[in-house]
Structures are given as C-alpha cells and as structure tokens.
Specification:
By secondary structure, this protein is mostly beta strands. The protein has four helices and 33 strands. Strands 5-6-7-8 form a four-stranded antiparallel beta sheet, with no helix packed on it. A four-stranded antiparallel beta sheet has the order 9-10-11-12, with no helix packed on it. Strands 13-14-15-16 form a four-stranded antiparallel beta sheet, with no helix packed on it.
C-alpha cells in the first residue's frame, strides 16, 4: 500500500512519503485517500463492514508509514544566509551516534546508534550526498577520527576498532582490547589514543592497526584530546589527567578539577589551547598548554556531548540535559559562547567540522538517522594597518677657508673669508 501510494502520488505530483511536519502529515492522509481511489484500493466512503475493516487496516499502514518516515530521515541540510535549512533525505532506521570529517578533501563518515546490521554512511562531498556501506564488525561505534584525507579510525563497544584507507567506503577490523572504547583522538597520522568507560587508555603508533594499554588509572573516563603526539589530556569522574610524554599519566592538582562532579567532553584546537566540560554546563579552557584553566559558563545544568572547532576558530558545542540537546556556538575559539537554535528539533547529539568549515551533525532520540550539514562558518576579523611616514632632514655644513697674506716691512694683514654651503635632503 505505501508503495502504491507513492507511485500514485508521484503521478499526481504530490510530495514523497517522507514527512517533515504535521501539515505534511495531514496532507499525506488526504492525498492517500485520493491515491487509494486511483489505485483501486478501498475508497474513504465505506459500504460494508468488510470495507471498513480493510480501511482501518490500511489506515494503520499509513500511520506506520508516517512514523517510519520520521524514524528514517537522514537529512543533509545546507544553511542559507538567513539561517534556514534545506533538507535532502536518505533512509536509515536509527539515530546517529558519531560523525567525523577529514581535515582536507570532502570525506566524512557517520555511525548509527545501534550497530548490528546498520550500515556505516560515508560522503565524499562534505555531506551533500551520503552512501551506505557494510559494517563488517556489526558493533556499535562511539567515536571516529580521520588521520589523513582518506584514513579514518573508529572505536566502539567491547574494544572493537576499525580502520579505513578509502575515506570510509571499506573497513578492516582491528583488535583494541576487550573494554568498550568511547573516546578517540589521533594527533598525527600514526599516533592515536583511545579511552574506555572503565578508565583504561589504549595507544596506537601505527594509525590504529595495533593497540597497547597506555594507562588504567582513570575512573569513568569521559573525554580525551591531544595537543601534540605526546601531550594529551583525559577527563572523567575523578578530574583531569595529563601526559607530557605520551606514556605516563598524572592527575591534575588544579583545584578547579576537584569536587565538581564528573567531567565530560574534551577538545584541543592547538598545542596550547584545550577545552573540557563538566556536568554543570561549564567549560574550562586553557591557553597555556594546561598550566592554568579558566571557567566559562555556557549551558547551565547540562554537559557537552560533542565539541568541535574549525581551523578558522569557529566552534560548536552540543549540550545534553533535561531530555533534550542544546546547541552553542563560538566565533573566538571557545573563549565565549552563545546559544543558537539547532536543527532536528533540538536533538543534535554530535558534530564535526569539514575541511571547508561546514559542520556535519548527527541527530538522535526518535529522529532516525538524521544528519545535518550547515553552510560554511566564518569568523570576521578586522585588521587595522597603520603606516607611519617619517621624514628625516640632514644638514651638511661645508666650510671653505681662504687665507690671503700680505707682507710689508711694517704691517702684516691676514684676511679670512668663510663660505658656508647648506644642503637639505
């Protein structure tokens, strides 16, 4: 019935059965009656109990189509100048859990929140179009990152790790140990760190192919980020931990990380600047490589589920709390934040910037496999150049002395004439 409905509605010029609003749902139901009349199915005017029973059954199918349409939406949205979004749809059942984009080129990948038989999605044009590919491990993946324009590493449940060398089109399974790995950062093409919920940190020095335990001191690890190959931070239930040699980890003694609950989310934008989040809506930010931290109030009683910044210093942070997600943006590298109206009914769960400063986000909680793509984000920098012209005057004095001597028997007269020449440059 839904197939016939789509065919009939296509003939009549009606919209496809992927619905974005209550208005479209009402229109869908109305057009469904017209389509069912054209396709020979039971009309709305019912003449018998049998027809009524059939109509009710088909109505249930229509309602199921509506709900399935909402669950299957995988939308690519391009942000216009006025802040509006344009939707493009691809089918998927479940919400999106992790997205990652390459530092250059147009490759991005997206993972659903279920794993199992769900595919992995990849794009080569920064999110404008998406293609599904097989998940060979059938595991749920929680984080991913690109180490080059085409190489990507993903980590997930029960120590599952996968790598791809073609931008996410095909994947190879790796062994990341037995613990669930829910955070990942690769500061270079070869060096990667992955953190688990149990506090264990794994390290790879070959681009994610093999992994060895790096630390197991942290408790309930909630985020990880690296400034360099050997300088990284990790946060969790017992504050902030840091390594400066890539091997040994020490707990921070900064009082800001004591007695403030769990810490969730971490992101570094340079070798000196990093941000971490707490569960009370604050971000802590450092600009000196972690020596000192400053508290930045952002979102009240909630915690960041995702933080990412473009190379131009524009940042997004998705915050989760009280049943929904909130989106915040920064145009100064995370020094200040403003709340903005997010897409997908305020349920944006994860976000990542593309090479051209577009943002790809994954939505969850009842919205199916929705991906959103914003237009390029820019920061406005005003540069004032002051040119000073200096004029130097040099005075050169040349003295010429002429001596005339006249000698007589009784009188000697000496006459001196001085001529001064002034040259001004």
């Amino acid at each position: 019935f839904p197939q016939q409905t789509d065919e009939a509605r296509s003939e009549t010029g009606a919209a496809p059965a992927v619905l974005d609003s209550d208005t479209e749902e009402r229109e869908f139901l109305q057009q469904t009656d017209e389509a069912r009349s054209e396709t020979g199915t039971a009309p709305t005017v019912l003449d018998s109990d049998a027809e009524e029973s059939e109509f009710l059954q088909q109505t249930d199918e229509v309602a199921a189509t509506i709900q399935a349409s909402k669950r299957r939406r995988l939308a690519t949205m391009s942000q216009e100048d006025d802040g509006s979004f344009e939707d493009v749809h691809v089918n998927n059942r479940n919400s999106m859990k992790a997205v990652a984009c390459a530092p250059s080129g147009g490759n991005c990948v997206a993972f659903s929140s279920q794993g199992n038989s769900d595919p992995i999605f990849y794009t080569t044009d920064e999110g404008k179009t998406w293609t599904a590919t097989t998940n060979p491990s059938r595991a749920l993946f929680l984080d991913a990152t690109f180490t080059s324009p085409t190489d990507v590493v993903a980590v997930g449940m029960s120590g599952h790790v996968m790598t791809s060398s073609d931008g996410g089109q095909t994947w190879t399974q790796r062994n990341g140990g037995g613990n669930t790995l829910n955070h990942l950062d690769c500061p270079s093409a070869l060096v990667c760190y992955a953190g688990s919920q149990s506090g264990e940190i794994m390290k790879s020095t070959d681009g994610g192919k093999t992994w060895t335990p790096n630390s197991n001191k942290l408790r309930m690890q909630g985020g990880m980020a690296c400034m360099t190959e050997i300088h990284c931070i990790a946060v969790g239930a017992d504050g902030l931990w840091e390594t400066s040699d890539g091997n040994s980890w020490q707990k921070s003694t900064d009082p800001l990380f004591s007695g403030r609950g769990s810490w969730i989310g971490a992101h570094c934008t340079s070798s000196q600047t990093c941000m971490v989040g707490d569960t009370k809506g604050n971000l802590l930010r450092t600009e000196d490589g972690g020596q000192t931290w400053k508290t930045i109030p952002v979102a009240g009683y909630s915690y960041p589920s995702s933080i990412d910044c473009s190379v131009a210093g524009f940042c997004y942070a998705t915050y989760r709390g009280k049943g929904n997600y909130r989106l915040f943006e920064s145009s100064d590298g995370g020094a200040s934040w403003q709340e903005v109206t997010g897409p997908c009914s305020q349920k944006l769960e994860t976000i990542a910037f593309t090479a051209s400063s577009e943002a790809v986000g994954g939505c969850g909680y009842g919205l199916g496999g929705t991906l959103v793509v914003s237009g390029p984000t820019t920061t406005t920098t005003t540069t004032t150049t002051t040119t000073t012209t200096t004029t130097t005057t040099t005075t050169t004095t040349t003295t010429t002395t002429t001596t005339t001597t006249t000698t007589t028997t009784t009188t000697t007269t000496t006459t001196t004439t001085t001529t001064t020449t002034t040259t001004t440059t």
